[in-house]
Amino acid sequence: MNLSDIVTPAALIDLPRMQHNIDRMQSQINSLGASFRPHVKTSKCIEVTQAQVAAGAQGITVSTLKEAEQFFAAGIFDITYAVGIVPTKLKQAHALIAKGCDLKILTDSVASATAISEYGAARGVSFKVLIEIDTDDHRSGIKPESQMLLDVAAALVTPGASIAGVLTHAGSSYDLNTPDALIAMAEQERALCVRAANRLREAGFSCETVSVGSTPTALSAISLDGVTEVRAGVYIFFDLVMHNVGVCTMDEIALSVLSTVIGHQEEKGWAIIDAGWMAMSRDRGTQKQTTDFGYGQVCRADGIPIHGFFVTGANQEHGIISSHTPQSSSISEMFPVGMQLRILPNHACATGAQFPQYQALDSAGDVLTWDRFYGW
Amino acid sequence: MNLSDIVTPAALIDLPRMQHNIDRMQSQINSLGASFRPHVKTSKCIEVTQAQVAAGAQGITVSTLKEAEQFFAAGIFDITYAVGIVPTKLKQAHALIAKGCDLKILTDSVASATAISEYGAARGVSFKVLIEIDTDDHRSGIKPESQMLLDVAAALVTPGASIAGVLTHAGSSYDLNTPDALIAMAEQERALCVRAANRLREAGFSCETVSVGSTPTALSAISLDGVTEVRAGVYIFFDLVMHNVGVCTMDEIALSVLSTVIGHQEEKGWAIIDAGWMAMSRDRGTQKQTTDFGYGQVCRADGIPIHGFFVTGANQEHGIISSHTPQSSSISEMFPVGMQLRILPNHACATGAQFPQYQALDSAGDVLTWDRFYGW
């Protein structure tokens, strides 16, 4: 199969670009002396994850227990579930551990830590638990200097649980767009997470793992002193949000939506394509950034960007392509019915999630179909 | 199974509300003397669609050929594919027709009409083709008074095709929020589509079907004179966008995301839930409306709205719940870890699409699991 055989819309992976992204991240983390645990929530695809493992990844990070189950079934044993667990999900986590999965779970409250310990003690399992640290005020986690850090740790030293370490995610790095700010955020993420680990150790608790990461901070870090592992997800494909953050070029974006022109509104300068929000997702992550790409950057079928043309509107199965600047040719001459286009997405995690499969295009122009799963 | 057994996040259908919505729409269209062809892109679920057919729907509307294939396999023969077709999809359409599906396809260009005719003639199939009419300037279609209407019609009177009728969708009704404006838009949609049909007939073309519809116009129409059928989709579940448009109450919203509280940031007044944008979708359709519900309205597990609490932030698997007004209780007292909540979505079509299954809750409190498909 090659490009022109693909039924559109389709989630197209440019394999040489993906491999470049894998190698770039793995080299960066290797050079700083930490191990790398990719977040596979971006692809939810066995073949993509196998390429990350082949390049040197040590274990994976997941955002759902379904991901843990799917990747464990595919032969990956070392898995960190990086979303705070609730008691109702412990049964599902326990089932994985009972099958031999080396699963680490996460908490940031005494209530959850106590529930984990009680569940584990009652059923004869000892959960490996990471304590979530808040290093940038953007979401979950415990402040490194808080008493709560020690309280949660104490609630985990029981027959039903043990402290595996500390974990943080500086998600506010997505809001930055200069190298200096990114370097500073990477250092803040590192320093505060290491500080939390040291406070635990000083109080007599064990803290083997010190896990940090987000794509922007992982690529910007200058030192990882005291960090044992880094996690990152979206770097595998990159996207327009990461382009605006400044950690990738347009040519490094490895995921696009292959689409076909289905019609025009000539007077408005609109071409209509068969990729609407169901294909692109509703993610408008570039809306508040320096360059707003609408629902995506329009490229030719061979991947070359068509300057100034964006998906400026989207209904469920219709995308509207237009340009903000006047054009010398008519829209139907530029984009005839049946023409294939690649659309670079705002957010690769959201766009990939709309598709049951990826179409993986290799350097010879051949296309492989790779399954992708979803749900919980 | 009942509510507390459901693994969260889950797409929950309130079945009594759904049945009320089905009956409400079917009665409205019956009373105006047209037939009703629901758009099943909202649910993509066999059981939901069977309930619409049982209430009197005549045929269905689909947004992808995958929907056509799935519903045809489930025993529904009369299907309109309401997205302009491109030549590369004719093979897939032909395969359905060859199996006995009464499939209608759509075009709004001479280029596509010619390609349809040529494909049909070459392979001995006559496609039933609807001509898409633009009645509100919002997306695709041909203006009723244009010469192009007659040119497209002429390109369809061939051995490979026939004119099935005209079809329009006044999607700009979503931007309105007063009964008068909605009534006027419904009348505009009707009058312009009927005008296009009459122009075709006056020019000697046949035009049996006159198909109009959107949820807001379908519920607001006072006359359907000259219209043969109405299409609508999101009414089956409704959502917060439709609530803001003014065509449903909060109590008529039949789809919600069942979620669980996983943590807090006490000082910020945040409760964190396990429904992020992967569950809610990235749809922020209420952002530009009179009431912005963030990523959704928070309700108790029994469905009663908790006034003033919205999902104000969303990461992939984390939702942040907060209120714009000060509260007398602490957030962790109001929303303890493990508490189940229902979140009403901005846009039911987008939220449903994030889930492989629906959990359908009946009036007795029992839960059935219904499959949902996706992709193209």
Characterise this structure.
The structure is a homodimer of 376-residue chains. Chain A contains twelve helices and 17 strands. In chain A, helix 5 runs parallel beside helix 6. Chain A has two domains: 205 residues, Alpha-Beta Barrel (TIM Barrel); 118 residues, Beta Barrel (Lyase, Ornithine Decarboxylase, Chain A, domain 1). The longest helix of chain A has 24 residues. Helices cover 31% and strands 25% of the residues of chain A. With 376 residues, chain A is α/β, with parallel strands linked by helices. In chain A, the strands form two sheets. Chain A has an eight-stranded parallel beta sheet with strand order 2-9-8-7-6-5-4-3.
Largest sheet properties of chain A? 8 strands, parallel
Oligomer: homodimer
The CATH architecture name of the largest domain in chain A reads Alpha-Beta Barrel
What's the mean pLDDT score of chain A?
97
